[in-house]
TrEMBL record, chain A:
InterPro entries: Multihaem_cyt_sf, Multiheme_Cytochr_ET, Paired_CXXCH_1. The keyword NADP does not apply. The keyword Signal applies. Residues 111-155 form the Doubled CXXCH motif domain. Keywords: Signal. This is Cytochrome C. It comes from Aestuariibaculum sediminum.
From TrEMBL, chain B:
One of its GO terms (molecular function) is metal ion binding. The keyword 4Fe-4S applies. InterPro entries: 4Fe4S_Fe-S-bd (IPR017896), 4Fe4S_Fe_S_CS (IPR017900), ET_IronSulfur_Cluster-Binding (IPR050954). The keyword 4Fe-4S applies. This is 4Fe-4S dicluster domain-containing protein. It holds the Pfam family Fer4_11. Keywords: 4Fe-4S, Iron, Iron-sulfur, Metal-binding. It comes from the Bacteria. CDD domains: PsrB. Residues 254-283 form the 4Fe-4S ferredoxin-type domain.
């Protein structure tokens, strides 16, 4: 009598143990993909893939901002007729006097409002070859993001980290990102509204 | 080579691919040995063609799936075909030692045979993968005269792909949809699209039933925002679980893929997917030859057939080369971010760690690797 109840007890234990053991998903070591990413990312060795080939033909410069080091397209060689001083050799104040032909009259500024922004908010009137900050410090055309970041600090943070600003090349290192002026025309930084690229006529039929 | 330990039976019809096929019992290494054809009623070539015709006949032009399922078959034709299949085998052995002019059709038949009876891609060794890819490339060349490149590249170590979508940035242009259709050789007839962009009203949360995913007006529309969906490459994918033949699975880099040649078209996976991520080929998919993307991957954008499942693969043919998927590259606003989740310095990781991200139907435990966030 004793031994048989012991046997029942034991087998019950075994069954319970088995149930507990097999019911938890033993193929999944982690609770959720975030935990897995963090754990497996700890021994990250790097990948053999590279974006370098996909960056061919794009002149880039390496920048380091807030602990993030990455490539951005060079700007000055993209500006037609840089350096500006090849035409605008005199300071702006002198050029605005008298009857000299107007330059860049076609540029309309749709960026903040007149109180905040005019040409010289960003362009250095005494040296057309460079930009200048609100405090009068000179900023190179290649680093124009330093100008934008004066107001758009949130976007600047996102851009440094990689949440804002499209990648160039591929996902593989090295990272290359568009800089502000590659997507936003600094004089009219908004995106234009337009028609979508596709319309699915088949879907319309199916849903009729 | 893997020939010895293949998981399917194959005939060596094609002499070029086989070292010893030039030699037959008679010992000659070139030309017909003549000893068989003399006493046969039919010449070997006739016999071979008759056998091939009886077996696959006019369906030779069709794809593998059509050959098996798309023919009306009564018991008699079924028996005839079975017999003919055996015959073709015999014929193949019979003709294997004579030099024939129709090397090409032989090769086609050989390829069809091997493709018909190949195993599941998931279980193949690298050599076997390479062989099937080579066969498909050759088959395409024989049929269309065009050369494609097809990769069987495996998942890379230390890579887990992830995606983030910025709802504040998307303007609803659908450039991604367009790029995806072109990149992935999607059926133009049924206008298949992996990506859907949902136009939603501001301030009302995510109401998919009230959203419009086929708008046609100037975008962005006043008072609306746009949210894109596609296959989310769940880390715990329910679609994989339900497949009765394991034609769909999760690769080591996290991509959920389909072997179009193993799929039997039951659409269980489509029903199991909570995100409307899968697309089915109800008709034979067609892409104009001049629009075909020739840079392909076995698990990605290679040409599909009628009756099989397909879906977004994060452009496996691109992503495994280090490129971004076509949608990411096409998006003019930078709303789409793609990268390696295991790289602590990747931009996707920064987004996950520094933005308020969320996923759709997180409570289901599917663990999609596709996050949404706002500026
Ligand atoms: S989104 Fe759907 S099709 Fe894609 S992996 Fe998840 S369940 Fe499968
Ligand atoms: S449709 Fe194909 S991939 Fe999907 S469950 Fe059926 S066999 Fe598997």
């Amino acid at each position: 009598m004793m031994s048989s109840s012991l046997f029942v007890n034991r087998s019950l234990c075994l069954i319970v143990f088995c149930m507990v053991f097999f019911s938890c998903k033993h193929e999944d070591k982690y609770h959720g993909v975030m935990e897995k990413i963090e754990a497996e990312g700890e021994h990250y060795q790097g990948v053999s893939l590279s974006s370098e080939n996909y960056l061919e033909g794009v002149d880039t410069i390496l920048i380091s901002e807030g602990g993030h080091t990455f490539l951005i397209p060079e700007r000055k060689n993209q500006i037609k007729l840089y350096a500006c001083t090849e035409c605008h050799s005199k300071p702006l104040a002198e050029m605005q006097e008298g009857d000299i032909k107007k330059a860049h009259w076609d540029i309309k500024i749709v960026h903040a409002n007149e109180k905040a922004m005019n040409c010289v908010t960003c362009h250095n009137p005494s040296n057309m070859d460079e930009l200048r900050s609100v405090t009068g410090m000179s900023i190179d055309f290649d680093n124009s993001y330093n100008l934008c970041s004066q107001c758009h600090s949130k976007q600047f943070e996102d851009w440094k980290g990689g949440a804002h600003g499209k990648r160039i090349g591929g996902w593989a290192p090295p990272r290359a990102s568009m800089t502000c002026v590659n997507c936003h025309n600094p004089h009219q930084p908004h995106f234009e509204s337009r028609w979508p690229a596709r319309f699915n006529t088949q879907k319309v039929k199916e849903r009729e | 080579m893997s020939r010895s330990n293949k998981k399917w039976f194959s005939l060596n019809l094609s002499r070029k691919q086989n070292d010893d096929s030039g030699t037959c019992g008679c010992g000659k290494t070139s030309g017909g040995c003549g000893s068989h054809s003399n006493d046969a009623e039919m010449s070997e070539e006739e016999f071979y063609h008759a056998a091939v015709n009886a077996s696959i006949g006019d369906e030779r032009e069709k794809d593998g799936f059509d050959q098996v399922f798309d023919v009306k078959m009564d018991r008699r034709t079924a028996f005839r075909k079975l017999a003919a299949s055996l015959l073709i085998g015999a014929g193949a052995v019979n003709t294997s030692c004579s030099m024939l002019s129709s090397d090409e059709s032989k090769e086609k038949a050989q390829i069809d045979w091997e493709e018909q009876f190949k195993g599941n891609y998931k279980l193949m060794t690298d050599d076997e993968k390479k062989n099937t890819v080579d066969r498909l490339v050759r088959s395409y060349q024989l049929r269309t005269g065009k050369t494609i490149s097809m990769s069987s590249k495996n998942a890379e170590e230390d890579v887990l792909f992830g995606y983030a979508f910025n709802i504040s940035k998307c303007q609803g242009y659908m450039d991604c949809v367009s790029a995806c259709v072109k990149e992935n050789n999607q059926d133009r007839n049924s206008q298949m699209q992996y990506i859907r962009i949902h136009e939603m009203k501001d301030g009302e949360g995510l109401k998919f039933d009230e959203a419009d995913d086929n708008y046609y007006h100037e975008v962005p529309a006043e008072g609306h925002f746009y949210l894109g969906t596609q296959c989310f490459h769940c880390d715990n994918p329910p679609c994989v679980e339900v497949c009765p033949v394991q034609a769909t699975w999760r690769e080591d880099d996290g991509l959920v893929v389909v072997d179009y040649d193993w799929c039997v078209g039951c659409r269980y996976c489509m029903a199991a997917c909570p995100y409307d991520g899968r697309r089915f080929n109800w008709s034979k998919p067609e892409v104009p030859e001049e629009e075909v993307n020739h840079n392909q991957h076995y698990l990605g954008n290679r040409m599909r057939k009628k009756g099989v499942m397909e879906k977004c693969t994060f452009c496996v043919q691109r992503s495994r080369e280090g490129k971004n998927p076509a949608c990411v590259e096409a998006c003019p606003t930078g709303a789409r971010i793609f990268g390696n989740l295991l790289d602590p310095n990747s931009t996707i990781r920064w987004v996950l760690e520094n933005k308020k991200v969320f996923r759709l139907k997180e409570d289901l435990g599917t663990e999609p690797k596709f996050w949404y966030f706002m500026d």
